């Protein structure tokens, strides 16, 4: 039997385990534990950040007093004059596909101190501003909810730039179709 061990090249008292393999297994285990720890930390950080809904709910709660009324200095729903506009049909900016156009019916909500007479007199200028704004938009921009909301804000600020008496508070879409 001693001859067999000598032939194999192993002394009779040495273990068959390689110390390099043991070191690699320990290093791999430590690396896996470190990756797991960092993933757990990232998960904890993501869960601790508030969502958009949480922030909006907290702001709304701050802005409303105990009696349910809006606090002074805060934004409140304003009454105004509704000013309907005739329908628009405008070409959209050329995208990668065929020519597209938008059909839009809108109503402007003017502030109380606005003059309906001024809005009526500036109707061609208002229509031109809206058509020019629509011509600069691509269909992809307007198909998303954020794009439609941004278009409202853009129209509102463009019209407010030339109104003398009063201002546009909001823009309402009565009909919005992209073909």
The coarse overall form would be: elongated
Gyration radius, to the nearest Å? 34 Å
Largest sheet: 4 strands, antiparallel
Q: What is the distance, rounded to the nearest whole angstrom, between the alpha carbons of the first and last residues?
A: 91 Å
Order of helices and strands: HHHEEEHHHHE
Query: Helix/strand-derived class?
Result: alpha+beta
Estimated helix fraction: 40-55%
What is the overall pLDDT average? 82
Instruction: Note the beta-strand portion.
Output: 15-25%
In CATH terms, what is the architecture of the domain at 80-178?
2-Layer Sandwich
CATH class of the domain at 80-178: Alpha Beta
Uncertain stretches: none
- Specify the CATH homologous superfamily of the domain at 80-178: Band 7 domain
**What do we call the CATH topology of the domain at 80-178?**
Tetrahydropterin Synthase, Chain A
Strands, total number: 4
């Amino acid at each position: 039997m001693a001859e067999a061990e000598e032939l194999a090249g192993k002394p009779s008292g040495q273990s068959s385990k390689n110390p390099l393999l043991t070191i690699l297994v320990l290093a791999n285990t430590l690396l896996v534990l470190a990756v797991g720890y960092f993933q757990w930390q990232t998960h904890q950080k993501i869960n601790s950040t508030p969502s958009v809904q949480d922030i909006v709910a907290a702001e709304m709660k701050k802005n409303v007093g105990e009696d349910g009324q809006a606090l002074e200095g805060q934004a409140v729903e304003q009454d105004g004059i509704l000013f309907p506009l005739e329908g628009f049909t405008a070409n959209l900016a050329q995208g990668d596909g065929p020519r597209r156009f938008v059909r839009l019916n809108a109503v402007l909500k003017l502030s109380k101190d606005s003059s309906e007479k001024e809005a009526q007199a500036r109707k061609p200028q208002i229509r031109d501003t809206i058509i020019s704004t629509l011509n600069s938009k691509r269909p992809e921009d307007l198909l998303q909810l954020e794009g439609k909301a941004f278009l409202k804000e853009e129209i509102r600020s463009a019209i407010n730039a030339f109104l003398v008496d009063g201002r546009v508070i909001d823009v309402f879409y009565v009909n919005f179709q992209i073909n």
